[in-house]
Structures are given as C-alpha cells and as structure tokens.
Design goal:
The complex is a heterotrimer of chains A (496), B (492) and C (100). Chain A is α+β, with helices and mostly antiparallel strands and 496 residues long. Chain A is built from 15 helices and 17 strands. In chain A, the strands form 3 sheets. In chain A, strands 1, 2, 4, 7, 8, 9, 12, 13, 14, 15 and 16 form an 11-stranded mixed beta sheet that branches. In chain A, strands 6-5-17 form a 3-stranded antiparallel beta sheet, with no helix packed on it. The N terminus of chain A is likely disordered. Chain B has 492 residues and is an alpha/beta fold. In chain B, strands 1-3-2-4-6-5-10-11-9-7-8 form an 11-stranded mixed beta sheet, sandwiched between helices. Chain B is globular, with a radius of gyration of 21 Å. The chains are: A alpha+beta (496), B alpha/beta (492), C mainly alpha (100). Chains in contact: A-B, A-C, B-C. At the A-B interface, loops of A face helix 11 and helix 12 of B. The complex binds magnesium ion and zinc ion.
C-alpha cells in the first residue's frame, strides 16, 4: 500500500529537490541507526522495590535505593531480566552472560550521579528485525539499564537555556530500560518509522513494554549521516535526541538530512555532534561536539554480581514466547496468498487471529482482509470469527447491501451477536422470493409505458429501464430486496 | 579456657538478671563522657540507649531472652546508617543528614540485644590511616594522646581501648579496622568479603569494604561477628552460606595447625620492634604445637599500588552523589553544575579530594587500561598467590601495621607515607579474605603492636582459632592502654 | 609507561569530578598525585597479558529479587532532608544543557 511507510525502495534524495537549495548534481542517501529505549513493564524498579508507575505525584514512587541514598545497594529485578531475555530471543539475539557497569556523569536527575547500565557485556548481542517490506535490519545489542528522574525547567518559558531554576522528580529514577541499538541499516525516514513501528509491535507482543511514546515509555535517539549514492563509506554522523513521536522522528530525520546535504553540497564538512530536536521550530540544534564528549569512565559495577541466566530458564522463556508480528504476518500472508507487507496492518492491529479463524470458517480471504482493514480500524470488539464468516457469506449471496453489511458489522462489534440476529432486528431481512415476484409484477402493471421501453429498447435503453424498475422495487421493499433477485425476475418477465 | 571478654560477661550477666542493662549503659555513657577529650565520638545517643536498656531490662524481667548481646553497649563508626540519627562520615558534606533507614548490621545488633550508644569519629569517608582526616578534628590514642589512634576507624578503636564500649563496629577497606585496633591495643577483625552485609554502610570502595568488630578480646570479636554476619538479600554481594557459630573454634588450640609467616609483609619496611613482636608471636604459636614456616605471596608486593588505584576509582564514583541536590550540604551558585562544584569543593577535605581525583584519573579515557584495568589483574594475581600459600598453610601471619602509633602530623604532609600505613593489611581486602589483628605486646615507647592472622575466604573459624591461641599466649603482655586508660592532657 | 601526571591532567580530572582547585592546590595535588602514580608505576609496568581481571573478590552470581513493590519512602521525610524543595520536588539552580 502506497500510504504505508517505507513500502517503496530506499528514498534517494536529490540535492536539487525542492527545498534543498543545493546543486542538483549529486544524489544522496541517508544512513540511519536507531537507539530505542523501552521502559520495561515491571511492577517495581530495576534495582529496588518502589513502584514502576507512570503519572504519580512527584517523588512518591521512591525508595532509599533508587534515590541513591548513602549506604544503599542495588539488587536486580528478576522480571526485568526475563523481559529483556524475551525481547532478545524475539530479535534472535544471543542471550549471554552479562555484567553491569557504571556510566559516570553529573546531572541532577541522576540520583547517584552514575547510571547503572551494561557496557562491554550486554545481556543480548546481535540479532535482527524484519520489516513488513521484508528488509532485515541488524541489531547490535539490547541491554538493561536504569532510567533517570525528570528535570523540569522553570521560568524562561520552560526553555532549558534561560530557565530560572529547575525541579527534579525521581519517580522515574530506576525504572528498568532496555536499550535496543540497531546497525545503521535504515535508509529513509519512512523506513526508520517502520522500524520503530515493528519494534514496538514486537515489544508489545512479548509484553515487555507498553510502547507509549507519548508517555516516554518508548524513546528514540537517531544516528544520522548522508552519503552520495553509491559511496561505500559512511559519512560523519550526528546523534539526534528528544524525538518524542513517530511523526517527529520522520520530521527530525528529514530536517537533519537536508541540513547535512546542504553543508556537504557547499563543501562544508559535517562535524560529529549530538543534536537536539526542537518540535516547535522543526529544527535540530547542536548540544555538543565529539571533542566535548563526556568521559563516562565506565567500570564494572562493584555492587552487582555477574548475570549468567540459566540456559533452562532461557529455553523456558523461549518456549513461552507468543507468535511475533513477523511470524503472524507470514502466517496470514501465506494463507491468503498475499505479500506479507499487504497484511501488516491487520497484524499490527492484532486482528490476524480473527482473520485466520474467519478464513478457516469458510470466509473468502480477500473479503476478510477488506473488512478488517476498512471497517475495523477501531478494533474488533465482541466480533467473533464465525460471525464475521457468516456475514461475509450473506454479503456474497447478496442477502445484504454493502451499507447494511457495514451497519450489521458495527453492531456485531458492539454486541457479538450473529449477523442474522442483527439483520433481523434491524429489519434488514431479505424479502421472501414469492413476495418479491408479486411486487415486481405489480410495478410492471403500474408502469406499462416504461415496461414497453424496457422490452423493446436497445441495449442502452434497456439498461436504463432496468435501473428504473429496480429502483421502484427497492423503494417498495424499503431496500430489502436483493438486487440480483430483482434483475432475474425482470429478465424472466421480459422473456429475454 | 579462653579469655571471655567484657561483652560476653555483660551479656551473660544481663541475661541472667544479675546486672541491669540500664546500669551497663549508664556506666558506658559515663566512660564516654569522662573520655570526651579523646574525641572518639561524633554523636552520643544517650537517651535512645537508655530507653532501649530499660526495654531490655523489662524483657528480662518478663522472662524473655534479649539475645547474645543482651545489654552490650555498642559504638558504631559514623559511616553506618542509623535511622533518624546523624550519619556524617566525619564529613562536612553530609552535614545534617539523618538516614531514613537503618543499616542491616544495626538491625542485627538490635535483634541480638545490643545497645547502640553512639557514632564514632573516623577519617572522612573512611579515607585515611590516622583519623586526622575527620572534618571534626582527630581522635586521640588512649595509649598516648600525642599519637594517632590509627584509622580510619580510629574513634571505634579508641572507644574500645578506653573501655567506653566493649564493642565497636568499624569498616575495613584497606585495613581500617585492623590497623587502628593494632595501634590502640585492641582486637579488630575484618570478615570475608560478603560475610557481613554492606547495606547501610556508606560506601568508600564497594568491592573492598567490610564491616567488622573491634573488641577487647578475640572471643568478643567472634561473638559480635556471629551476631552480624549472614546472608542479606539487600546486598547482592552477600554470601548465601550461613556464617556459623565461632565459639567452638576458640578453645581448639593450634596443635598441628600450619602457620605461614608472609615474607613480603614482614621484612622490608617493617620497624624492628614490630618485627620482634611478630617473631615472638610466631614462636609462641610454635610452642603451642603449631607448625610455623615462612611463605611467599609474591603479588602482595603490588598490593598497595593496586589498592591505591582500585579503592580511589570506586570511591570517585561512590562519592559522586554528594552533589548538593538531595541531602547534606549545599553551597549556592548560579547554575546546577556550579552548585555541584561549589558544594563538593567546600564539603570534601583534601584527602577525599585527592582520592576522588586519583580514582577519576585511573578510570579516565586513555588511562583505564594502564591503571584501573591493570590493578584488577593484579587482584587476580593476589588471589592466585594466596591460594598457593593456603595449599601449604592453614593461616598466615603478618604484622598489622609496619609501625606503632605515630605522632599527629607526622604523615599528613606526605600522602604516600600515610598510604604505606596500610602496606600489611590491603592484601586481605584485595583477596576478600578474613583477617584479625590481635594485640601482641608492646613495641617502641611501650606502645601496642598488633599481629595479624589471615585465613582463606570463609576461613573465619580457623582464623579465630589461631587468634584465640595467640591471645592466650600474649595475655601477660597486654599493653597498659587496653585496660581502660583515660586520656592524659597531651593534645596533638 | 605513561608520563607523569600534569597540571592540565589534574585540572581536567578535577572538572570531571566537579571540584575546583585554587592555583596552589593544583600545584600541590599535581605533585602528590604524581607521587602516588609513580608508586603505582610498578603495576602499570607489569606484563599481565592473559591475566583475567578480578572485580569481585568472592564469586557470587545471578542474585535476583522478586518483582514485588515494597520499601517506599515517605516523601515528606525525604524532602525534609533536601537543601531546597518546591511543590514536592527538589529545587536546584537552573540546569544548563541536557544530560550528556
Ligand atoms: Mg545510548
Ligand atoms: Zn541508554
């Protein structure tokens, strides 16, 4: 589908494209790698017992450990480890013995002024994510770390650089994060969005995260560079932070690509930088260059011990994994005989089980796909697979008009009743065959001139008059007559 | 029979209803007051201690058993967190901070009937070997007030030596329990790393820190150790296996026990008087039937260098949290970062700054491999060399400190000279092994000398066994200071 | 082997550690840190190829806690310890720049 992100080939940016303001003699392509931080769906924090909950009063979900009080020590949350392993196995990563490290830097929302993260021995290494288009994006690693608190900049219109003071809330401090790092395999903003969408579906499927970008439970940093099409080497990259929605991701990447291309087109080198995406201005701005890069002084976290998950545990987690979005896409596509990309909307909405069952119950795959895509965007509610199959059968037999089908379907989503029940209650029931014949004969008798024109007219006239009589019959039956039945009766009476 | 010690005696008397815990605590508080010029305590919790004593007396009266430390006054080093009671680490930066929770050891002491009477002075954040680095001024050595009590648990050692409390807890990162115990003429013990929970011990160097007892006798040390040791789910590095009862080991004697004198820790750099006491201690063990020999632990030579890279590196990270945002001192400034700098610059003393910078450097880009990375590998060598030594010997023997107590100011201008005070003790911390300092007679100027018994990981029983024998053999040479001397008029 | 630590090194390290040093302190600390690092030169010079590092002296592994919420702190008690608070939050001077 053309309106789906990334369905086409890699986007190639001509420097001379409108808005780029650079000579048109070079074509550029983007190289994008994403770091996605996903908050894990645990009940308590990564290293301590205060609740992992969004939206509480400031500084109410805190305990001595997540506040980094002197003398406190971290103890690792088993469920966070399990969720990390679930994601790793879903991505085809190697789940390996891992070690926590301290990443040292000062910031008020970091209670210990170091973050406990994983550095040279992450829990998950390698793996890949297949997009609906079939393109496979490599995964570098997916490691566990703790989240920081939240700093609010007060005064100066909330802008960071002229705030009067700042307030810190530690409710989020210590919430478990999984940082999933991709290889720079993405080539367009649309593809980057598609990657995040697919990753999000995977996280949701395995119950690792709620994936709510608007609540910050899924956060994306992007490494972006551009290079002339055909170049073998990567250009100098910039890291874009503060991207808070899929839409911003696309906008930020496009802006950043244009900026880099504009510079390179006039012979200015791109400097390696961390840049901040500003949603309001639609621009990225430099935070710091590589030379100013912080020296994090990573070293093994001495308060934690190595993590070496028991292989039996890992296998148990693997055995309990649900079907992944990719697998579900392939399963449905295989059954329908379509391209996986064609069915991805249904699997993303989690309606593929319904589709499969309806097809199994005898419904035509194409009709199933059509209804799911067009009429069930807000979910399938109480709708059952048997009901859907029945409805599609009634539609195929011409027992309901397409408008009636939509009405019946909406009611089935609400109540879960059978289509026959709904149609009957709505008075949609088709007119009985004998009744219909009587109506047709009465209408013919009432319109002799029109009937003559139908019987004697040429092909065009005949068709026009068929329409007239059909309309009359429908009006007489309040739209409950079956169009095909009416056509057959008219043909019979005309003796043709 | 073995020397019981005041803690065992008090607990027995209180449990038996022969003495009231209240009278014991009153006596302890009086001793603390009369020795105030030693500056052993940062905080005395008299009211809370007396209230607890009364509850223990009520329990005894009601026929209950308050536990193996019933009524025993305990002094806590001021880096052990106590709920609602200032915990300063003898630093300005923790000014006014009252922890909202108790350290695990405090809970265990309470559960055993012990009574916390106060918090003792120390080198700031346990960084030092003389207690001269306290923001509140130094503690004086009860044996000679012109001299340092050692450190960093100098207040705890002084409290024990001056008979203010029969039991004090210290923390030992590179010798900070054993060295002051030696310099004050009392017993100081560092357990196997992971035996005693670190939860609630304000971290200096996480992979080296252990809490342990400072007492007058080996038997009392074993009693306190048994009370505070054991698995704690709040400390990931806590050893799951139970610590066990040590009392049986104390009377076993040393016949047939293989005792190795560590060559690298007992030759060069050790004062003659200290070497002489070590030799005498070894002889006395031999006379009791131990097989005494010399053993080489080659990597021990590098121990001090490795220690002074690893400990500061961990400390640089552990002490980052004192930034003026959430608790303790804040020095106002225009921006958050400037406030961090102003607060830390004003709140930390020179030695803490030195170690933070040293550790930051050892971890920094381009230097990690040469310094911190190498030090961790040396740690492997230390473990290997100890393992080899313990194939031939059951326990190892070394001096605790290269010298007797030194005078105030003698080493403050030269950090490296001060660091050498830990030369004999750091190897046990790097290896995570238990070690105990036992008074072994007097050296120069009649000052106490300590001898250190080291054992392999989890070898507390054999360590206490040898230490108890050593103590019995030395009983008649106990230095004058350990019997409850009060301070003279001299000051640093 | 690395060269003796310079004043610039110490100044940089002081900034990383959020400490400020007067000129005389910088001078003194540079000398003192140099002495300690000289003493550590024996370690830096060792050939330890193939020796694994030891970060934990006693081998314990896989220490995990159940995912059960507990141990919450009373906000008032925590905020009472803070140098400055506002509306249930910790107040600090303006933070310039984002977290690195
Ligand atoms: Mg990152
Ligand atoms: Zn991260």
């Amino acid at each position: 589908m053309s309106d789906r992100p990334g369905s086409g080939a890699d986007v190639i940016w001509a420097a001379g494209s409108p808005g780029l303001g650079a000579p048109a003699d070079t074509e550029w392509e983007m190289v994008i790698g994403l770091e996605v931080h996903a908050e894990l769906l645990t009940r308590s924090k990564l290293f301590s017992g205060s609740p992992n909950a969004f939206g509480g009063e400031p500084n109410t979900n805190i305990d001595p450990v997540c506040m980094g009080l002197p003398g406190t020590l971290p103890v690792l949350n088993r469920h966070a480890v399990e969720l990390a392993i679930r994601v790793g196995l879903s991505l085809g990563s190697l789940v390996q013995p891992s070690v926590f490290a301290r990443k040292n830097y000062f910031y008020p929302d970091m209670p210990k002024d170091y973050q406990i993260s994983q550095y040279d021995r992450p829990i998950n290494v390698g793996g890949s994510l297949e997009l609906p288009t079939g393109k496979v994006i490599g995964i570098v690693r997916a490691h566990l770390e703790e989240d920081t608190g939240k700093t609010t900049h007060m005064g100066g219109a909330g802008r960071i650089d002229d705030a009067a003071y700042s307030l810190v809330d530690y409710n989020r401090a210590g919430v478990p994060l999984l940082e999933i790092v991709s290889y720079p395999d993405l080539r367009s903003p649309a593809e980057a969005r598609e990657y995040v969408t697919e990753l999000r579906s995977t996280l949701l499927a395995v119950g690792a995260s709620d994936g709510k970008m608007e609540e910050g439970s899924l956060r994306v940093d992007a490494n972006v560079s551009v290079r002339p099409v055909g170049a073998g080497e990567f250009g100098t990259r910039c890291e874009i932070k503060n991207v808070n929605s899929l839409r911003s991701l696309g906008r930020a990447l496009e802006y950043e690509a244009r900026r880099q291309i504009r510079m390179l087109s006039v012979g200015e080198p791109v400097t390696q930088q961390t840049r901040h995406w500003n949603e309001d201005t639609g621009r990225t701005s430099a935070l710091r260059t590589k030379e100013e890069a912080t020296d994090y002084r990573y070293f093994p976290e001495p308060d934690l011990v190595p993590l070496d998950p028991d292989p039996a545990w890992v296998e148990r987690i693997r055995a309990e994994l649900p079907l992944l979005p990719r697998e579900r896409r392939h399963r449905l596509a295989g059954l329908i005989g379509e391209d996986p990309a064609r069915v991805s909307l249904v699997t993303e909405r989690g309606q593929d089980d319904l589709a499969l069952a309806a097809i199994e119950a005898g419904a035509a795959p194409a009709a199933v796909l059509k209804h799911l895509e067009q009429n069930l965007a807000d979910g399938s509610g109480e709708l059952t697979a048997d009901g859907l199959a029945e409805l599609i059968g009634m539609e195929a037999r011409g027992e309901l008009t397409s408008n009636q089908v939509k009405d019946v379907l909406a009611e089935m989503v609400r109540t879960g009743e059978s289509p026959a029940t709904v149609a009957r209650r709505a008075g949609f029931e088709a007119v009985a065959a004998g009744e219909l014949a009587a109506v047709v004969d009465r209408i013919i008798a009432e319109h002799p001139e029109e009937w003559r024109r139908l019987c004697a007219g040429d092909g065009r006239e005949r068709k026009k008059m068929q329409g007239f009589f059909t309309g009359q019959v429908m009006r007489a039956t309040k739209g409950q007559a079956n169009g095909r039945d009416v056509a057959a009766l008219l043909a019979d009476r005309a003796g043709s | 029979m073995t020397a019981a010690g005041p803690a065992l005696a008090i607990a027995a008397a209180v449990r038996g209803g022969e003495r009231s815990a209240t009278s014991v605590v009153e006596e302890s508080l009086a001793a603390i007051a009369s020795g105030a010029e030693l500056a052993a305590f940062n905080t005395v919790t008299a009211e809370a201690a007396l209230a607890r004593a009364r509850r223990i007396d009520d329990a005894v009266a009601a026929g209950e058993d308050p536990g193996c430390l019933a009524g025993v006054p305990v002094a806590l080093k001021d880096n052990i967190c106590t709920r609602g009671v200032a915990t300063t680490c003898s630093s300005r930066i923790l000014e006014g901070w009252e922890p909202p929770y108790d350290a695990t050891v405090v809970g265990r002491l309470n559960a055993a009937g012990g009574i916390v009477v106060g918090k003792t002075n120390m080198d700031e954040f346990a960084m030092g070997s003389s207690t001269e680095n306290s923001a509140f001024g130094p503690t004086l050595n009860p044996c000679d007030p012109a001299r340092v009590p050692g450190g960093s648990s100098g207040g705890s050692a002084a409290a024990g030596a001056a008979a203010m409390t029969p039991v004090a807890l210290g923390s030992d990162t590179g010798g900070s329990i054993r060295q002051p115990a030696a310099l004050c003429g009392v017993v100081g013990m560092k357990p196997t790393y992971g035996r005693v929970s670190r939860y609630g011990l304000v971290a200096f160097a996480s992979s080296l820190d252990q809490i342990g007892p400072i007492t007058c006798t080996v038997a009392d040390a074993a009693l306190v150790y048994s009370a505070i040791a054991g698995h704690d789910p709040l400390d990931s590095t806590s050893i799951p296996e139970p610590a066990g009862d040590m009392s049986g080991a104390l009377g076993e004697g040393v016949a047939g026990l293989r005792v190795g004198i560590v060559a690298e820790l007992s030759g060069e750099g050790i004062d003659g008087d200290v070497s002489a006491r070590l030799g005498a201690a070894a002889e006395s063990l031999a006379s009791l039937g131990a097989e005494v020999g010399e053993v080489s632990v080659p990597a021990a030579v590098y121990g001090l260098s490795a220690y002074f890279l690893i400990a500061p590196a961990e400390a640089s990270s552990n002490l980052a949290r004192y930034d003026g945002v959430r608790y303790g001192l804040r020095v106002p400034a225009a921006t958050a970062a400037d406030m961090n700098v102003a607060t830390r610059t004003a709140g930390f003393g020179d030695e803490v700054k030195r170690r933070i910078m040293l550790g930051t450097f050892a971890l920094s880009a381009g230097y990690y491999d040469a310094y911190y990375g190498k030090a961790l590998k040396v740690r492997t060598l230390v473990l290997r060399d100890f393992a080899a030594a313990y194939e031939r010997f059951d326990v190892l023997l070394a001096p605790t400190s290269p010298t007797v107590a030194f005078r105030f100011g003698e080493r403050t201008g030269n950090p490296l000279a001060m660091y050498l005070s830990d030369a004999c003790t750091v190897a046990s911390n790097l290896a995570g092994h238990p070690a105990i300092s036992v008074p072994a007679g007097s050296g120069a100027d009649g000052l106490p000398v300590g001898v250190q018994v080291m054992a392999p990981a989890l070898g507390e029983a054999v360590m206490f066994r040898a230490a108890a024998a050593l103590e019995r053999a030395q009983a008649d040479r106990r230095p004058a200071g350990s019997g409850g001397a009060t301070a003279g008029s001299a000051s640093p | 082997m690395t060269e003796r630590i310079s004043r610039d090194d110490v100044a940089h390290v002081a900034w990383l550690a959020r400490l400020s040093l007067r000129a005389d302190e910088l001078e003194r600390f540079t000398l003192q840190l140099g002495d300690v690092l000289d003493h550590a030169a024996d370690v830096a010079a060792l050939d330890l190829e193939g020796v694994p590092p030891t970060s934990h002296p006693y081998p314990v592994g896989n220490v995990l806690r159940a995912d059960v919420p507990d141990g919450a702190l009373d906000r008032a008690e925590v905020l009472a310890q803070a140098p400055e608070t506002e509306e249930g939050q910790f107040r600090v001077p303006p933070v310039r720049g984002e977290a690195p």
